[in-house]
Each structure stands twice: as C-alpha cells, then as structure tokens.
Design brief:
The chain has helices spanning 21-27, 70-83, 100-105, 171-179; strands spanning 14-17, 45-54, 57-66, 131-133, 141-143, 146-148, 182-183, 191-192, 195-197. The protein is globular and about 45 Å long. It is of the alpha+beta class and 202 residues long. A 3-stranded antiparallel beta sheet has the order 1-2-3, covered by helices on one side. Strands 4-9-7 form a 3-stranded antiparallel beta sheet, covered by helices on one side. A 3-stranded antiparallel beta sheet has the order 6-5-8. It has one domain. A hairpin with a 2-residue loop joins β5 and β6.
C-alpha cells in the first residue's frame, strides 16, 4: 500500500563528491562544528546531488552524509525514484539555520546535522551523517501526547495513506528492509516515521 506517482521514464542520476568549498562555507558553524572533536572531519563527509521525484515533477536535491555511506544513500534514493515515491524537497539543514524544527516544519528531507538527540547530551545519528529524514510533515515524529512537526497532525492517521507517506506494510519500508536501513516508524518509545538510519557497519 502506498500513494505513489508514475516513476520517471529516464534513469536516475546522482553525483557523489567531497564537500565543496562553497558548501563548507554554508555549513561551517551552522550544521558543522569543527571545534568539537566529535564532529566528523570534512574528509569523512560526502556531498550528494541527486534526482528525486517531487510533488510537482522531477527535482534535483542535495544531501551531506557520511562518506562511507554515500553509495548506500544514493542507492536508497534511486530506489525511491524507481518506485515513484515523492519527496517534497532535499535541502541542506543549513538553509534552515541547522534548526531541526524549522527543517521539519518546511517538510524538508535532510541528513547531516551535528546535533544531539533532543533533550539529551547524546549525539544524534544525524551528527555522524548516518541518518536521513524523509518528508517530516507526511511522516511525523509521534507519541500519544505529542506530534512533530505540528503540521504532521494531519497525517497522524497512518491508515489514510497519502502521497509521501511511509507506512508498513508498503514498498518504501520493503526497500529500506532490503537495502539495510532501519526505520524509525518501527520504534516503540516513539514513532519516528520520517527517520531512516544506517545502523550496520560501514
């Protein structure tokens, strides 16, 4: 079950490379904090430019992920392209001041952000470039007493499947399972429906 669109007829394309100087300038002191020894070095990160199906046609987006994970991230996005799964936008979290809340509210899909898990001192998997958030409005973080982002309340009923939603059973979760990604919608303490993370060795 899924609300998909007809997949594009042309092949998916993507570019993987080091984080360019202009992108480093955007990230420095925003999502990347070189003064913290726990922050990945630039050599440990990769910059991706990737095709994706948008809600209004084909689009090109950008992500920063762990360099060791770059090929797997592209493989996942290629599979979503082949499925015709729409992604609202793929922009660096730096375009939102590295605010997770602002990025989610804008329904932005992003990856690297050197930050802690909300309310803790523990580094998020995003801080290591190992996690990707996909369509946070259509796939909100959910507990019985709280839903984030606020616009995600319109998608709290996971049985009413609409474009951009990730549900189990469904082709997107089947692809995550096949390709080795863990899905936050399977978690018990809270359902993090937009969060996918590489939890295996790289």
């Amino acid at each position: 079950m899924a609300a998909l669109v007809p997949p594009p007829r042309r092949d998916h394309t993507a570019e993987i490379g080091p984080v360019p100087a202009a992108v480093r300038a955007r990230m420095d002191g925003v999502s990347w904090h070189g003064g913290d020894p726990r922050c990945p070095r630039w050599a440990d990160l990769a910059y991706l430019q990737v095709d994706h199906v948008g809600f209004d046609g084909i689009a090109r987006g950008e992500l920063v992920v762990a360099a060791a994970l770059a090929g797997r991230a592209v493989a996942l996005l290629r599979r979503l392209w082949q499925l015709g799964f729409p992604i609202r936008q793929l922009r660096l979290v730096d375009d939102f001041g590295a605010s997770d809340d602002a990025s989610m509210a804008a329904d932005n899909s992003s990856a690297f952000n050197f930050r802690c898990v909300a309310g803790t001192q523990l580094l998020s998997q995003h801080a290591l470039g190992r996690a990707i958030d996909i369509n946070p409005v259509e796939n909100p973080w959910r507990r019985p007493d709280r839903i984030l982002p606020a616009a995600g309340r319109a998608f709290a009923d996971r049985s009413a499947i609409r474009s951009g939603m990730i549900v189990r059973p469904g082709p997107v979760v089947a692809a995550l399972d096949e390709l080795g990604w863990e899905w936050g919608g399977d978690w018990c303490h809270a359902f993090d429906d937009h969060h996918v993370v590489w939890s295996r060795e790289m």
